[in-house]
């Protein structure tokens, strides 16, 4: 994961969609440029991360201080792989938060890791821009909306779109609501975030014209669970709705590759003006290390992902596309 996040160019936010609207309705599908996103999305994410408390636990190895030296950031990230006691210490802290499926963990991850690291990566922003360029106008559902990055981009891209985000993390819902309220006040009334578990939602409640789900499906451990989650998603979309599904490829699971990737994420945070604390770096590296290197790897190949989507009743319209700098598969799907 990574992060990404100055003051907003409000003129762009307000006028770009209107200018497109004056041209023609088809232009709602013009992709947002990465530059637009950098100018509009990153500051909001940086600001949120700066407001949040760092992640803490009782440590024999780390201090609660910001790491501004890229080399030091790399060193701490590497230590999580090399020092077994440190690895154990962080793993215990993650367990105390309730483990990978708990809202508390996602809250912490967003606040201190995701928004400072992922959002600063141009490949993440390109993935956001590409995904929303495939969506129709109307009501778009952001399934597992997290901090609201995709939702924000959807609203910025067209005045003919509304967003309904749903996420099981209460803090993610709050963060997304705060971020959009502060960032696109002119879109008030065009977005709503709901706290809820997709697996527990009664069908046909949301009636979306389109939807997006970025990096959520991989949290399901088995094919059956993945098909089940996508069936729930399909039941919230109207016939003919377009749905963009992004999910990580089974890459970076070789320890050396992963170690280097995580160290560069920690390093990039120091460079993009949103440094992490020692605890944050260890947390970011350990959660990804433990998820990505365990025996039963839940990530799907593009072929498996297509199969899962078809079993859930979707029709493949475009893809598989390789996005996020080659780390993610994107599918453009349709509800028959
Ligand atoms: C890796 S984050 C991605 C967030 C967002 N889509 C983005 O790309 O910025 C995964 C999100 O899915 C949410 N999530 C996972 N399982 C969920 C479920 N069953 N119901 C609702 N939200 C879920 C988590 O709370 C988390 O916010």
Distinct ligands? S-adenosylmethionine
What structural category characterises the helix and strand content? alpha/beta
Biggest sheet character: 7 strands, mixed
Give the termini separation: 33 Å
Instruction: Identify the CATH class of the domain at 122-250 and 300-334.
Output: Alpha Beta
Strand order of the largest sheet: 3-2-1-4-5-7-6
H and E order? HHHHHHEHEHEEHEHHHEE
* CATH fold-level assignment of the domain at 122-250 and 300-334: Rossmann fold
DSSP strand count: 7
- Rounded mean pLDDT is 82
Q: What percentage of residues falls in helices of 4 or more residues?
A: 40-55%
Anisotropy-based shape: globular
CATH architecture level-2 label of the domain at 122-250 and 300-334? 3-Layer(aba) Sandwich
Q: What integer value in Å does the Rg equal?
A: 19 Å
Beta-strand fraction estimate? 15-25%
- Number of helical elements: 12
Assign the CATH superfamily of the domain at 122-250 and 300-334.
Vaccinia Virus protein VP39
- Uncertain segments are 1-28
């Amino acid at each position: 994961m990574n992060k990404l996040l100055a003051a907003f160019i409000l003129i762009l936010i307000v006028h770009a969609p209107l200018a497109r609207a004056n041209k023609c309705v088809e232009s709602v599908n013009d992709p947002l440029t990465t530059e637009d996103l950098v100018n509009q999305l990153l500051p909001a994410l940086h600001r949120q991360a700066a407001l949040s408390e760092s992640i803490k636990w009782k440590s024999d190895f780390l201090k609660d201080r910001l790491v501004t030296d890229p080399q030091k950031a790399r060193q701490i990230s590497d230590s999580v792989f090399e020092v077994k006691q440190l690895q154990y210490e962080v793993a215990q802290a993650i367990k105390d938060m309730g483990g990978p499926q708990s809202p508390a963990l996602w809250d912490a991850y967003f606040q201190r890791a995701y928004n400072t690291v992922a959002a600063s990566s141009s490949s993440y922003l390109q993935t956001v821009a590409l995904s929303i360029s495939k969506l129709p106008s109307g009501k778009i559902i952001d399934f597992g909306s997290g901090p609201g990055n995709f939702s924000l981009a959807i609203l910025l891209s067209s005045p003919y779109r509304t967003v309904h985000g749903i996420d099981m993390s209460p803090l993610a819902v709050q963060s997304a609501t705060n971020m959009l309220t502060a960032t696109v006040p002119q879109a008030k009334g065009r977005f709503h975030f709901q706290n809820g578990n997709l697996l527990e939602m009664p069908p046909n409640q949301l009636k979306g014209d389109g939807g997006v789900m970025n990096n959520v499906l991989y949290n399901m451990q088995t094919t059956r669970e993945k098909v089940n989650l996508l069936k729930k998603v399909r039941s919230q979309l109207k016939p003919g709705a377009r749905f963009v599904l992004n999910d990580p490829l089974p890459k970076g699971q070789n320890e050396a590759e992963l170690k280097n990737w995580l160290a560069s994420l920690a390093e990039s945070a120091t460079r993009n003006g949103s440094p992490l604390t020692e605890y944050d770096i260890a947390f970011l590296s350990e959660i990804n290390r433990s998820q990505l290197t365990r025996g039963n790897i839940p990530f799907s190949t593009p072929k498996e992902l297509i199969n899962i989507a078809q079993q859930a009743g979707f029709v493949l319209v475009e893809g598989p596309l390789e996005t996020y700098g080659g780390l993610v598969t994107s599918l453009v799907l349709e509800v028959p």
